[in-house]
Amino acid sequence: MNKLFQYFILFTAFLVITSCSTDHRLTTSISSPGGTIHVATGLNEVGEFYYMVSKAGKTIVDTSMISFDFLEKDSFKSGLEIVTTEATSFNETWQMPWGEQLDVINNYDQLKISLQEKSGEQRLVNIIFRVYDDGLGFRYEFPEQEGWIEAQITEEHTQFNLTEDYTTFWIPGDWDIYEHLYSTTKLSEIDATALRDHPSLAQTYIPHNAVNTPVTMVANDGTHISIHEAALVDYSGMTLQVDPENLDFNSVLVGSENTAYKVIRQLPFHTPWRTITITDHAPGLIESNLIVNLNEPNKLGDVSWFEPMKYTGVWWEMHLGKSTWDYGMTQSMDSWKDTGKAHGKHGATTENVKKFIDFSAAHNIGGVLVEGWNTGWERWIGFEDREGVFDFVTTYPDYDLEEVVRYGKEKGVDIIMHHETSAATETYTKQQDTAFALMQSLGIHSVKTGYVGKILPTGEYHHGQYMVNHYNNTVEKAAQYQVAINAHEPIKATGLRRTYPNTISREGLRGQEFNAWSSDGGNPPEHLSIVAFTRMLGGPVDFTPGIFNIKFDEYKKDNQVNTTLAQQLALYVVIYSPIQMAADLVEHYEANPEPLQFINDVGVDWKQTQVLEGVVGDYVTIAREERETGNWFIGGITDEHARVSTLTFDFLEDGVTYTARVYKDAPDAHWDDNPTAITIDEQTIVKGDVLEIQLAPGGGFAISLMK
């Protein structure tokens, strides 16, 4: 640390101390409760506001400017003064109704700074900093004030002026979709515009050299940083435009072709939190609760009507081409009613769903997802006018909804509804009350929603303010009917599951289905060892693991899953979701009863989580303790490189003996050459024991530790 910076830290600390005394000096800096993270703020010579962030004396974010542009108004940028500041502290422990852990500590120091223009309209904007020991969040508040009724924001300028050419794990700042593979480059080498054309995506729009969040970076000294946002409500999603020469990010909000502004809000309001997670190592990123803590507490109260579960379903078989979503190809939406020309490959039949119910009931699996059950699939994609296509209460002739629900209840298995909207938002909004009421009448508490295609109304994007509001309004509407939402093609996860716990999971990444049909070789072996430290930091991921028939040559010779079977088991622990799909076909599970046992046993709702090891893009090992039982489950995965994992079981309960069932790659396993080679053995484990496990290229391991 140079002397100038030491003096700066001492001076700002002096300001913090003196601000608490009776002379009411303005507090312009703040530290986290443990003194780990420090934030300094100020105004430059022309009255522009800036902030700086350091960790243990190292500057993480250097002088970074903040401003707003408005439609037909001057920018809120310069000529500002700090009129008041307020420093407070907060510490609580709250409980997740479901989640990666039960108890969550929410401990931060807060600094509120009121900025006002010295001339002109003299508008007032507050900036709130909440500083934790593993990072910070800050947001902008537009208080009620005379002469300013409505804000039409054309751009928010939040700068993240970084101090190093970090190794960066990123996907492009696509306004429409997150289903891109992650790139690993230096910050200065990011070129998102090179990824504009993608043959496997239904829609994509990348207008800037920008990245989507969470974006994760690793410094030369091992410092890990992830930039994201929290509590995205009634606002536009934030992308980060790259300045490769100056090594910084600048916020660019997702826009609309239908308005000259990107966000419109009535005062008073506040923006989402801009978040920076800072840890000494990769596991700390996953263990951080910064994002959920920055969201408001539960607004729904008791949500015990939703229970975390594993599920099977009519889904993977359509991606393989074994069956179809539609009942029969026709020229008009209703002609199947008149002609009865079913093609015979429809997957969502009463008979087929009962087969999944029987299998689920026999293997400790609580739900069955049914896709393709409702009318409209003949015209759901490839048509520009998709409004009015889907009906969310009318079944095809070969599917008896009431009967499968009755049969499922008899077997102790819930039906999970599916609502594919084809991104026709007005149709879905109009039908939601009817659709959710039908679910409530049948005792169905979970629905998977989908938004494949370009958003209707035309000109809107998946991640602009219009769709942010649509997604969030859908969650609130569903809660009125005791329905939980698992959203696909969603807005990004920003921790709103704390406020609305019926927001149970979402896609928002390149999922398992790309392995079945994409033309670029599917997801590479490194994919999920990046996802765990990027996308998963935002919240639960519905990745649909558990594919046992890795090659599926009988359906598609040119496609496969690029992992070993052991890694597919490990994903039930590594990739968190309170709903986890056993995604493969029933016959593939029945042919492999021994590895299936792990899916039978593994939990979905956790008392605590420990990340035992990890390097972004290389490997990760996670241990989770199940609520209620106290049993532990461990999953470890690697990229295309083989490696040895050494586990020390010092996290187990004292004085308890556990039966460990270990599912690991066989010595000759390989994600491409021999992916299904697996070894399963049993042994007893007590606290402090050490175990070495060999992971094959693209491989993994899963361990159940039963008391």
Can you tell me about this structure?
There is one protein chain. This protein is an alpha+beta fold and 707 residues long. The protein has 14 helices and 35 strands. Strands 1, 2, 3, 4, 5, 10, 13, 16, 17 and 18 form a ten-stranded antiparallel beta sheet that branches. Strands 6, 7, 8, 9, 11, 12, 14, 15, 19 and 20 form a ten-stranded antiparallel beta sheet that branches. Helix 6 runs parallel beside helix 7 (401-411) and helix 8 (425-442) runs parallel beside helix 9 (465-480). It is globular and about 75 Å long. The chain starts with a helix and ends with a strand.
Q: Can you summarize this structure?
A:
With about 700 residues, the chain is α+β, with helices and mostly antiparallel strands. It has 14 helices and 35 strands. Helix 6 runs parallel beside helix 7 and helix 8 packs parallel to helix 9.
SS-based class: alpha+beta
So what's the overall shape?
Answer: globular
- Rg (C-alpha, Å): 26 Å
Report mean pLDDT, rounded to a whole number. 94
Quaternary structure annotation: single chain
Percent strand:
25-35%
**Largest sheet, strands/sense/barrel:** 10 strands, antiparallel
Distance between the termini: 50 Å
Question: What's the helix count?
Answer: 14
The share of residues in helices is 10-25%
Number of strands: 35
Unreliable stretches covering 5 or more consecutive residues: 1-24, 330-339
